[in-house]
Every structure is written in structure tokens, then in C-alpha cells.
Amino acid sequence: VQLQASGGGLVQAGGSLRLSCAASGRTFSGYTWAWFRQATGKEREFVAGIWRNGNIFYADSVKGRFTISRDRAKSTLYLQMNSLKPEDTALYYCTGSPSVILSSLRVSSSYHSWGQGTLVTVSS
Q: What angle do CA 31, 40, 46 make, to 5 degrees?
């Protein structure tokens, strides 16, 4: 599966952005989908994920501010980001895999298909 992320940009603190991730190719049912982010000089970290049964999980740092969703008909994954903070500044990646176990959903090495990343910059 090929993934193409978009929607990043520059926004002031308190603002909102919606990221999109278009999937093409053979997208199996039963995939787990997720967003990760990587700030300069830091490791890639889990942001939000939809496990293959539809259950949704968030990092504590974004809970209540970010919403992950999926449009099956459009083969597109979304991340609605509200109340953005400067510490949300990072390169955001979408990813998916058919073989993620629940205990590894937040681990980047569990996923084998990655988008190219879209940059989100939040100014203070």
C-alpha cells in the first residue's frame, strides 16, 4: 500500500489543522492505521491509531485535542488537530499495517507502510 500525507502547514498556537493520508494500492481489511510524528532531534512518537477492530487510541499528549478518523470509501485517513501547541511542531507521518498486535500499536517498527510526512509548525 502507498500512502500520501498532506495538510501540514504553519499555524498559530490555539489554531487547527486537518491532515489527510490517501492510501492507494491493495489496502486489506483488517489494517491498523496510525499517525506518528517526529520533532527535530527527537525520536518518532505515536500520536493516534485505529486498530483493525475499529478501536481508537491516542497519546496522552494529544488526547482531547486530536481526532483520528477514516473514510473507507475514499481510502483516506485523517487527523483533525485542534488547540495546537508549539510542542506539536513536527513532521507527521501516516502509516498502516495488516499485522499489528494491540500491545505494539504505539510502536513505529510494527508498521511497514509509511507516507512521506507532512510538516506541521505551530508558532507561539
A: 25
CA distance 43 to 24: 27
**What whole-number distance in Å separates Cα of residue 30 and Cα of residue 28?**
6
**Tens-place pLDDT, residues 32-45:** 999 999 999 999 99
- Rounded to whole angstroms, how far apart are CA atoms 93 and 111? 11
95-117 pLDDT, tens per residue? 999 889 999 999 999 998 998 99
Residue with cell 501547541: 85
CA 58, 61, 64, 66 dihedral sign is negative
